Amino acid sequence: MKQNYNFCAGPSMIPNVVLKQVQEELLNWNNSGRSVMELSHRSPEFASIAESSENTLRELMSIPDNYHVLYCHGGGSGQFSAIPLNLIEKSQSADYVVSGHWSELAAAEASKYCHVNVIDIRHNVEGKDALLSANDWQLSDNASYLFVCPNETISGLEIHDLPQTDKPIIADMSSSILSRPLDVAKYGVIYAGAQKNIGPAGLTLVIVRDDLLDKVKRTVPAIFDYKTLVEKSSMVNTPPTFAWYIAGLVFNWLKNIGGIEVIYNTNLEKAKLLYEAIDQSSLFINNVHSDNRSIMNVVFNLENKEITHQFIERADNAGFYALKGHQSVGGIRASIYNAMPLAGVQSLVQFMKDFEKNMGTQ
Ligand SMILES: *Cc1c(COP(=O)(O)O)cnc(C)c1O
Hints:
By secondary structure, the protein is an alpha/beta fold. It has nine helices and 15 strands. The chain is globular. Pyridoxal-5'-phosphate (PLP) binds at residues 10, 75-77, 102, 149, 153, 172, 174-175, 193.
């Protein structure tokens, strides 16, 4: 089979070795005589899968003991509501740093449940899209927490710093978790939908500091209630067991290739290669300031819609899938999460060069 590369923003690529292992184990997991899909979430077999998944994640991210790891439903979007519901009363306020589409949505959803102070950090530096550095964020005294989205998946902008604050920092890391080294202790809550850097859709990972449980008296739906989820080991109801299992295999894969430092270096190399190819070409344009360029989602444009369409179609035919930009912005987006090998980006860069050279020909 010819090697194809999937640049989809999510659900996205899963490492080949993991998919092969899933295939091998699909009908009969670990001599249980059943597929993982058929195992009770209360069975000792699934308990061992759940435990090993959490242990590997804790090791990979060096998660301190005073943090809980929850395996939830509802996606990143579910957490837009779960965060305010779990952390503050309706009369209280929270600061929302808005750096793009997802943080904007998170702020809008939170405003149903509390007061939201929007801190819009998008600005323009010499014609480039950029984000204000953390020193320049106008934080409010009355905020109970600070929300950030370190990587904006649609516009391809990344925040690299955090302000000095004693308030809990809540981070939507749906498209950046496990992509670079991280000090978990700097955050109150980290969450991520699984379908970008963890595994299949349907699972949402929440990492929450112990002292933030049980903060409010308000009504919280049981499946979103962090305290209940902790007490029930994320099994308030039937969790997405198959996604949970595959997430564990992805964590193992990451550990086996050397962990986060190693994948971070590869991620940097991939991003550098692609941005350099764009900057050196006279056809492709990326308008993100170098300080804020995402290493996970590389967004770029061609001079007009017709050529863009042609590029995406030819790329697709050549096995470079899902390069179409998000419907709200158009253009091209190459999502190069952990599972995208360096060879995938090298091949894409070569394809882009060939496309540019053959422009105007059939
Ligand atoms: C994809 C994404 C979401 C939405 O995730 P769902 O699981 O589809 O709800 C939220 N935040 C960020 C940063 C994302 O990239």
